[in-house]
Amino acid sequence: MDDRIRQLQTYPMVELARRKAELVAKGIDVLDFGTGDPVEPTAPVIRQALIDSVPEISQYPTIKGLPALREAFSDWYEARFDVSLDPETEVLPSRGSKEAIFHLPLVLVDIGSPKNAIVYPEPGYPVMEIGTLYATAHRVPHALTAENQYLMRPEDVPEAELERARIVWINYPHNPTGTDMPAELFEAWVAARDAYGFVLCSDECYTEIYFGEKPRSLLEFGREGCLVFHSLSKRSGMTGYRSGIIAGDPELLAFYRAQRAAMGQANTEFVQRASVAAWRDEAHVEERRRIFGAKRDVMRAGLESLGLSVYPTSSTFYMWIGVPEGETDASYAARLMDAGIVVSPGSFFGRGNERFFRAALVPSVAGCEEALTRWARL
Question: Do 163 and 198 meet the contact criterion of CB atoms below 8 Å apart?
Fold first, then answer.
């Protein structure tokens, strides 16, 4: 096994599931703020679309996916971001955004080329680093901190690394902090892409979970050399359906689509039909924002009343919280676990984040209130 792969820690969400199982085995009532897997029911219109589409005979899906799905996403994207996409050449379904984020370096990076580096945020979605490792590309983790407002800025990345970069990942709204990227930084990154010739990739699966201004999308600012990754997991409560979309530069998508034949297909057709229903309905998304907003209000007020520092953001269903003095993320998470509360230590999302932990707004409002009661006993 490759030494770099051997050195990878257990995937964070797998570790959280193991810890949760240990608590459940002890008979502890667990309130899980660890894995970002919401428990609100998937909207009936989506479930019914899937049921109605289950065929008598199941066959392989195509690489490109159903035209109806690509058209539904294109229509939604234009209504949401005022950007027109060609559903034939600029949209490609994926099995959630995770597989596409992992695959992309395998397709785009030639390790024998001078442009063999991948720049990604830290803290950030672990799959960006994992995909880099499996592609044996040069890693360039870009440290995000409270001091730089968790914002990636081109001028903060050494010029030599930008010249070497094949892919630069941005992720806003940001996992794990919930930070949004302002328009001027999208513009700055597109200008840097034009100057240095890397592929600019934007993980945007949280754009629809917001409580202030609507988050922006990369393709509002540029398309050449740019790809965006969207998902129905969080927007529509379809984590188990594994339904995502890649959109952007048609030349890049054509190349990736050609390589995907060796990696897999689009979703099964009945999942694609359910996805069409999801992209064409906004009522369930608005209701999910209302529910997450109510949880967010309860948790923010309660945690701050307990003296904990909650990083101020207005998007995603995550809260980025400072650990108390004298604690580390691991020690504090362990104490919370003793009380039946599961959170994600900050170090799960990259080095240098031991002073924070992430709480995903998964339990109900009543569950959040119960968690705060237990928290107060600590």
Answer: no
> What gap in Å lies between CA 319 and CA 219, rounded to an integer?
27
Do 364 and 317 form a contact (C-beta atoms < 8 A)?
Answer: no
Read off the pLDDT of residues 97-144 as tens digits, 9 standing for 90 and up.
999 999 999 999 999 999 999 999 999 999 999 999 999 999 999 999
Distance of CA 308 to the CA centre of its chain: 25
CA distance 130 to 208: 26
Residues 116 and 204 in one domain: yes
Residue that is last in its domain, among 242, 263, 279: 279
User: How many structural domains comprise the chain?
Assistant: 2
For the beta carbon of residue 92, count every other beta carbon within 10 angstroms. 26
Provide the residue type at 352 as one letter: G
Expressed as residue numbers, the domain containing 205 is 44-279
Any idea what the CATH number is for the domain that residue 21 is in?
3.90.1150.10
Q: pLDDT (tens digit, 9 = 90+) per residue, 173-227? A: 999 999 999 999 999 999 999 999 999 999 999 999 999 999 999 999 999 999 9
pTM given for the model: 0.93
179 and 302 share one domain: no
Do 252 and 138 lie in one domain? The reply is yes
- Do the Cβ atoms of 169 and 122 come closer than 8 Å? no
Q: Mapping DSSP to helix (H, G, I), strand (E, B) and coil, where does residue 210 land? A: strand
End position of a domain, from candidates 279, 300, 333: 279
Where is 21: in which H helix or E strand?
helix 12-25
Read off the CATH number of the domain in which 124 is found. Answer: 3.40.640.10
User: What are the structure tokens assigned to 247, written together?
Assistant: 């959109």
Any idea of the CA torsion for 279, 282, 283, 287, to the nearest 10 degrees? Answer: 100
